[in-house]
Design goal:
Strand order of the largest sheet: 1-2
Order of helices and strands: HHEHHEH
CATH class: Mainly Alpha
Largest sheet: 2 strands, antiparallel
Shape: elongated
CATH architecture: Orthogonal Bundle
Number of strands: 2
Radius of gyration: 19 Å
Distance between the termini: 50 Å
Length: 90
């Protein structure tokens, strides 16, 4: 009976940890879908905005459309709106 209890406990723990790992993989960018970086990851120079050079390597991000105020950089709200829109298209 003790062996059965240990097996059940092991299987439960394995399931719990694999679920946590899977959930972490599904959230690479918080705002966007799988493979889309978060604002903090995209803002490589930590300036508080994502410049066009930083956005160039982000697949699926249309910088010109995302830059609503046409100031040449993406604010957090512009970036998150664009990555959410890009995730919905996928």
């Amino acid at each position: 009976m003790r062996l059965l209890s240990k097996v059940v406990l092991f299987v439960f723990a394995l399931f719990a940890f694999s679920t946590v790992g899977f959930a972490a993989e599904q959230k690479p960018g918080a705002a966007g879908g799988p493979g889309m970086p978060s604002f903090s990851q995209a803002d490589k120079d930590k300036s508080g905005s994502v410049e066009q050079s930083e956005a160039a390597g982000i697949a699926g991000l249309d910088f010109a459309t995302a830059d609503k105020d046409k100031d040449g950089k993406l604010s957090r709200s512009e970036f998150e709106a664009a990555t959410k829109a890009g995730a919905k298209k996928q």
